[in-house]
Write a structure and sequence with these properties.
Layout: E1 2-6, E2 9-11, E3 16-18, E4 20-25, E5 28-34, H1 35-49, E6 59-63, E7 68-71, E8 73-78, H2 81-85, H3 95-108, E9 111-120, H4 134-147, E10 155-163, H5 170-178, E11 184-188, H6 200-205, H7 216-228, H8 234-246, E12 250-254, H9 259-268, E13 272-274, H10 279-287, E14 291-295, H11 296-301, H12 311-316, E15 322-324, H13 331-341, H14 347-352, H15 356-361, E16 379-383, E17 390-396, E18 399-403
Parallel strand pairs: 1-6, 2-7, 8-9, 9-10, 10-11, 11-12, 12-13, 13-14, 14-15
Antiparallel strand pairs: 1-4, 2-3, 4-5, 7-16, 16-17, 17-18
């Protein structure tokens, strides 16, 4: 069936187009035509179809009433699924139920492709809740892989975040890639004294409840132990990165805090720099050809919750390529419109941070990420007239998966 999306504002990769109709057929974008041409073509096809039973019903028209049409958003780093599977430290819910409930929220946020980003921590780490242990990580990855062939709302992918001090699970990472369970791999090091925790006070602040009552001496001992622990060698990481490259899996680094670390990552074959700690490092990452990732919540909060690089500053300085939700999927749409409404960015440019650029980072830009003939019809219909964007419809591969009708304002003094 053909669907004509008319009377909208089409947010392309380099401009916003008005007076044009977006035409989809099946799961793809068929073409983008001037309104008059699209209307004439539809009229002719309907006329021809009137001679054949039911053919005239194969053309559907959607009047967008001036709404924006955007590509579906692609989130390549989010651990929100953790809270749906393990909402409490002692409560692990059914994995499939958690994933199905999570995707309903993700669809309502306008995220049509999600890379669920679950960390694989070593045993004994202070942040190693059950969902982050190797058996559970593998279980979730297998479920996500299976979902590609089952009834679902959005497109699910798996982002394996591997802590490089987790020596015991090194072979698990290799096996998961060989089994096709990994779609994005990142190397992480949450050791104190570097990366995200260069400031030890931030490291102490982020300790779980049982770690916040440590004496100064106990905390110093913890830091010493963590700084002296063994990690995977360069050769070991290179072997993982090479395995990923052979399978078309992008590799990311995490919390890069020095230019020297970027050089090491480049030698490893890393292509993505997630959450660089300083503006200097972010700029150098882009110069070196890395795709740089910053957090959308950082935009909304006015800065990093860890006291590191401001995402807005990075974008202003052309030192960032991709926005991710990290832990709050609602942030993507609002961050995009914050850039457009309050920071003066053209909407098409703001949209690239959550659509085409992340698609390029993970090698999916031939299929998704922009409104372009031949690409999958992942579409968002957004009312952008008010202070905040109102998401009204979401399509994944041409199929509507979410629709929301906003009520008008109640009369003054009315009660319900």
């Amino acid at each position: 069936m053909k669907t004509l999306f008319k009377n909208g504002k089409l947010v392309l990769e380099d401009r916003v187009l008005e007076g044009y109709t977006l035409v989809t057929e099946g799961d793809r974008i068929l073409e983008i035509l001037p309104d008059e041409e699209a209307a004439a073509q539809a009229s002719m096809e309907k006329g021809q179809g009137s001679e054949e039973k039911d053919t005239a019903e194969e053309i559907c028209e959607v009047d967008l009433r001036g709404r924006f049409v955007l590509p579906g958003m692609i989130d390549i780093h989010s651990d929100m699924i953790e809270s749906y599977i393990q909402p409490r430290s002692t409560a692990v819910m059914d994995f499939e139920m958690g994933l199905r409930e999570a995707e309903r929220v993700l669809a309502s946020c306008g995220i049509t492709t999600m890379f669920h980003s679950i960390s694989m921590f070593r045993e004994g780490t202070w942040d190693v809740k059950e969902i982050r242990q190797a058996p559970q990580v593998r279980k979730l990855a297998a479920l996500i892989g299976r979902y590609r062939h089952e009834k679902r709302l959005i497109r699910h992918r798996y982002h394996l975040r591997y802590e490089i001090d987790n020596l015991a699970c090194y072979e698990d990472v290799m096996e998961m890639m060989e089994e096709g369970l990994v779609d994005l791999l990142s190397f992480m090091d949450h050791s104190p004294g570097q990366g995200q925790y260069k400031n030890l006070e931030i490291y102490r602040k982020h300790q779980p409840d049982e770690g916040k009552n440590l004496t100064d001496q106990e905390f110093e001992e913890l830091v010493r132990k963590e700084m002296e622990k063994e990690t995977v060698t360069f050769e070991g990481l290179k072997k993982l990165a090479d395995c990923a490259a052979e399978r078309g899996i992008s590799v990311a680094s995490h919390d890069d805090d020095t230019v020297e670390k970027l050089k090491v990552n480049r030698d490893l074959g890393v292509k993505i720099s997630e959450f660089p700690i300083t503006l200097e490092v972010a700029k150098e990452a882009r110069k070196a050809g890395f795709m740089t990732v910053v957090g959308a919540p950082n935009i909304l909060l006015g800065g990093s919750h860890s006291g590191n690089l401001s995402a807005l500053e990075a974008i202003r300085e052309e030192a960032a390529d991709v926005l991710v939700s990290d832990y709050y999927p609602q942030a993507l749409l609002h961050a995009m419109f914050r850039l457009y409404k309050k920071e003066g960015f053209p909407l098409w440019e703001a949209a690239r941070y959550v659509t085409l650029n992340p698609a390029k980072a993970v090698g999916m830009d031939r299929e998704i990420g922009s409104l372009e003939k031949g690409k999958l019809a992942d579409l968002l219909i957004v009312d952008g007239e008010g202070e905040m964007p109102l998401l009204e419809q979401v399509y994944v591969a041409g199929q509507k998966v979410f629709e929301c009708s906003y009520r008008g304002a109640d009369p003054t003094g009315a009660q319900e």
